[in-house]
Amino acid sequence: MRKLLSILISIQAVLPVSGQLASKDTSAQKNTIALLGTYHFNNPNQDQFNVNSDDVLSAKRQKEIAQVTATLARYKPTHIALEFNANDTAMDARYQRYLKGQHTLNNSELEQIGFRLAKMLGHPHVYPVDAPGIQLDFNPGELAGEYGYLLEQLGKTGDSIMTQINGWLKKYTIGQILAKLNAPAMDKLNVELYYKYLLPIGKSDNQPGPEAVTRWYKRNLLVLHHIMKLAEGKKNQRILVIFGQGHTAMLKQFLSYTSDFGVVNIQQFLPAN
């Protein structure tokens, strides 16, 4: 037992305190992943809480997007992974038409940043890696009354976050907003919502909270699986993942426990706030 404790203490001593990969560990990796968490530019209203995005096709926002794309290009990604069904070829088909001048970019972050950057770098394809068939689908059912205080706090917290982000939209450039969204404090706040407000909701064999959180973890683990497949059997791959910040916050958590990829801090390619 003493020997085991000694080994564990030795391992702990060389790990970064934050749980994130140290910079020297990141640089030593052959394959790297950079995660860009975004808000949805096109207001799809598919989430419980949604940002009220302004018109990203306006001249002002187009200039800002071009600036973000130019700085992201410094990462020199070999693959651009996007929030679209991994089993659906429609997105890459649109990208092929875009390369031929037969498709005008829509107002989604996938096309405005993903397609634009991929074309700039001469990429022949973009890569969908999502598993949208798995949804959170949280319904407290008969437990809604008993756990109403948690549901109320979840609603207030979610609304407060959206109000904050909507305020950013009126004040900052898209690059600045993305920098704020990808800050460690925002990642922590996002993941914490599931543990604080959903996970406790359940009694006996009726566990809607843990089941919903389990589905969310499953979806994001499948996303990571699809991302990792892009570099399977390869070396020196640099993957840029462009996804909703609700996903990237969790993907960062997963990646902090693997040594197979170096995790590149996306903040170095975004404006300083």
User: Please, how many domains?
Assistant: 1
Strand content: 5-15%
Structural class of the helices, strands and pairings?
alpha/beta
Strand order of the largest sheet: 3-2-4-1-5
Q: What characteristic shape results from the CA principal axes?
A: globular
Uncertain stretches of 5 or more adjacent residues: 1-27
Question: Topology as H/E string?
Answer: HHEHEHHEHHHHEHE
- Main sheet attributes: strand count, strand direction, barrel closure: 5 strands, parallel
Can you count the helices? 10
Provide mean pLDDT, rounded: 89
Q: Helix content range of the residues, please?
A: 40-55%
The end-to-end span amounts to: 49 Å
> How large, in whole angstroms, is the Cα Rg?
20 Å
In terms of topology, how is this protein built?
Elements: H1 2-14, H2 23-28, E1 32-38, H3 59-72, E2 79-85, H4 90-99, H5 109-120, E3 127-130, H6 148-171, H7 174-181, H8 184-198, H9 208-229, E4 238-244, H10 245-255, E5 262-264
Parallel strand pairs: 1-4, 1-5, 2-3, 2-4
Structural commentary:
With 273 residues, this protein is α/β, with parallel strands linked by helices. Residues 1-27 have low confidence and may be disordered. The longest helix is centred in the middle third of the chain and has 24 residues, at 148-171. The protein has a 5-stranded parallel beta sheet with strand order 3-2-4-1-5, sandwiched between helices. The protein has helices at residues 2-14, 23-28, 59-72, 90-99, 109-120, 148-171, 174-181, 184-198, 208-229, 245-255; strands at residues 32-38, 79-85, 127-130, 238-244, 262-264. The chain has one domain. The chain has 10 helices and 5 strands; from the N terminus they run ααβαβααβααααβαβ.
